[in-house]
Write a structure and sequence with these properties.
single chain, mainly alpha, 10 helices
């Protein structure tokens, strides 16, 4: 009899593992939650929702980047420093620092800065609306009739600013004190997770106590920490080492990958909260 090829063996092994995991659902609640989470995500098209959020994040990132670059140039002029020095003081290094410094050296900085302020606010509002629709679909089965409140938009904007500031602070501490860097990572997780908890309370959800939203906030905090560490140790170094090969295309690809992961975290966090908040199923 002919020996089965490698693909056939791996398929058979995967089926056996799947059957064992399915059989273990009744004995291990964590496995059952994982299965139900995957089933729920598939039923509402979680991947498509995450892609929509990644697009909104990218739309927000464009005017935000221009706003920061213009502001960096204005700061360099006011402090009588070169844009390269200002970029290094802002914690930017390597290829990214050179790109930012060259861009911020262009004229009409005040005009760009003033135009980007309303653009950032509008992009934040559209991102919040997209998040509200996603949470409405996850919690209520429909995103129709979601409300966009100024308080919610402000909370989301503050949470995003806090995530960026915390990432910069962690990077600075890590470069100066390795032991303190470990404590800073824990502080980053708490700050980002706590900020997302406040945002989640503004987004659509069932009438549940705030504690029911903690699992999703923890997931977002851990996920953002992973994305930050991955970008620092893998993405940035990979792009900078191969700047001549990839250049701006490499930066854009790495950025889009990070945004897709962030969008996935936002969707799964809502699904996890909604799933755990459901009444226990009868056996």
């Amino acid at each position: 009899m002919a020996r089965p090829d490698v693909t056939t063996r791996w398929v058979a092994r995967g089926r056996r593992l799947g059957a064992r995991a399915e059989a273990a659902r009744s004995r291990h609640p964590i496995i059952d939650v994982g299965y139900r989470l995957v089933e729920r995500d598939s039923s509402i098209g979680g991947g498509l929702l995450a892609g929509a959020l990644a697009y909104r994040l990218f739309v927000l990132l464009l005017p935000t980047a221009l706003l920061c670059v213009a502001g960096l140039g204005l700061y360099a002029d006011a402090a009588d420093k070169s844009t390269s020095e200002a970029a290094r003081e802002a914690g930017l290094h390597g290829l990214i620092a050179s790109q930012v410094s060259s861009t911020s050296s262009s004229g009409a900085r005040w005009l760009v800065f003033l135009l980007m302020v309303p653009a950032v606010l509008y992009a934040t509002a559209t991102l919040y609306r997209a998040l509200a629709i996603v949470h409405g679909i996850v919690w209520h089965g429909s995103g129709r009739g979601v409300r966009v409140t100024p308080r919610g938009i402000g909370m989301l904007f503050a949470a995003l600013l806090l995530a960026v500031a915390a990432a910069q602070a962690v990077g600075w501490i890590r470069r100066h004190d390795q032991l303190g860097g470990l404590a800073a990572l824990l502080a980053y997780l708490v700050l980002v997770g706590g900020a997302w908890l406040l945002v989640s309370r503004q987004l659509p959800h069932r009438d549940v106590p705030w504690r029911a939203l903690v699992p999703g906030a923890v997931l977002v905090g851990v996920g953002f920490l992973f994305v930050n560490v991955f970008n620092v140790y893998v993405t940035t170094r990979l792009v900078e080492d191969r700047a001549d090969t990839y250049g701006a295309l490499g930066i854009a690809t790495a950025l889009l990958l990070s945004l897709v992961i962030v969008g996935r975290l936002m969707v799964v966090s809502a699904e996890l909260n909604a799933l755990l908040a459901q009444p226990e199923r009868s056996p």
